[in-house]
Each structure stands twice: as C-alpha cells, then as structure tokens.
Fold this sequence. Notes:
This is GTPase Der. By secondary structure, the chain is an alpha/beta fold. The chain has one domain (4-162): Rossmann fold. 32% of the residues lie in helices and 23% in strands. The chain has helices spanning 15-23, 65-82, 98-108, 127-132, 152-159; strands spanning 4-8, 40-47, 50-57, 85-91, 113-119, 142-143. The chain has a six-stranded mixed sheet with strand order 2-3-1-4-5-6, sandwiched between helices. Helix 2 (65-82) packs parallel to helix 3 (98-108). The longest helix has 18 residues, at 65-82. The protein is globular. The protein starts with a strand and ends with a helix. The relative contact order is 0.19. Residues 15-16, 58 line the site of magnesium ion.
Amino acid sequence: MSFTVAIVGRPNVGKSTLFNRLVGKRLALVDDRPGVTRDLREGEARLAGLRFTVIDTAGLEDATDDSLQGRMRRLTERAVRMADACLFLVDARAGITPLDRELAQMLRRAEADVILVANKAEGAAGEAGALEAYELGLGEPIRISAEHGEGMGDLAAALHPLI
Ligand code: GDP
Ligand code: MG
C-alpha cells in the first residue's frame, strides 16, 4: 500500500486548496468505501518527485459551533488512523485559535508523524501567525501558500525522510 498522508486542521485553513494542488485531477474513486466518501477525500499526490496517497478531511464546513469540536475530533482521529503521516494545517493569517490548540493536543499523542504547516504564509501578513504556531509544541512550522504554490519544496523536504 502506498504511503498515506492526511491533511488535517480546523475548517478554512486551506486543507482542500492544498489537496487540490497536490492531486490535480488524479482523484481516486472511493465511492464504494462506505463512510469514507463524504467526509474524507482520497487522491494520488505528486509533490516534487514524491508520490503518496493524500486524504483531505472535509465535511466540517456545515457544522454548527457546538457540534464542530466533537465532529472535528472524530473525523481527524479517523483520518489519522488511516495515515502514516499528517500535515497539520494552521492559518498563518488568522493566527492560532482554541480549536487549533485542541487538535494539536490530540496530534501530539498520535502514532502518525505530524508535520506542522503554516498555510496562507505568502507575503508578510503570515509571519506573526507562523511564529505563534511554535507554541503548539509540534516543532517549526513549514510556511507555505497552498493557493500560490509557495513552500512546496520545503513541504517535500519535510515529507521526504518519512516516505
Ligand atoms: P479548508 O476548509 O481547510 O478545506 O479550506 P479551503 O481550502 O476551503 O480554503 C479556505 C479559504 O482559504 C478559501 O477562501 C481559500 O481560497 C483560502 N486559502 C487557501 N489557501 C490559501 C493561501 O495559501 N493563501 C491565502 N491567502 N488564502 C488561502
Ligand atoms: Mg475543505
């Protein structure tokens, strides 16, 4: 089976934007896998010569505030169990939120390797948020811009030793 990377993080940090950049049109057909299709999307990623299976955790966008935390935790746990490594995305522009801290606490206990990624880090606006991300206790954040394709080489370099 191919090395599997889950993209996790609270809603709106840019998980799907990164997934789409990594996968392009190579979306896997997962329609015959019950329970997986709606909340978890799977595809074959290519990143600077690396190939791996990538999972996007979706399905949280429509959650109300009081159901978000529990759903996020369950969905993230499910994705992490399927994965060899996780890309934990935070939003460098919005900064670190209580939901980010809760997810970080969960991920620090996970079996999978966790790579902390500060997305939306293009330009200067993301620098404060990227620095704030150090406090999550998951090492130095890899600064990327999923939308503009920046930092993809650094992301590949972080994943390479794990694959
Ligand atoms: P998800 O909910 O985590 O899957 O987040 P999405 O991928 O749907 O992105 C949420 C919003 O952030 C969208 O409006 C994206 O266009 C925007 N976004 C994603 N990546 C970047 C980025 O690198 N920089 C900026 N400035 N915006 C981004
Ligand atoms: Mg999404």
